[in-house]
Amino acid sequence: MKFILPRLLALTVLAGAAVFILSIVFKLLLAGLIFAGIGTFVAKMIGKKRERYIEYSTETGNFLPYQSFPTQQKAYSKTQKENLAIIPIQ
Asked: CB-based contacts of 52: which residues, under 8 Å, 6+ apart?
């Protein structure tokens, strides 16, 4: 008993210290993950706010509506519309 008890006590203390250190490491990793998630969310919100105001900034040069004139876009179709016909099937 006197031979095993001190060694068992030392192993228990070492195991407890190892578990304590590992729990601190994982808590720090969890806190880092949470802060990274919050930072990503804030960056996304700031990016959306900047995206809304980028159209009227002086960097693009088109901040007044009369400076750019929209051009008419042509419809794209894969087939020629002149050759289309309804063919009756009997």
From this structure: none
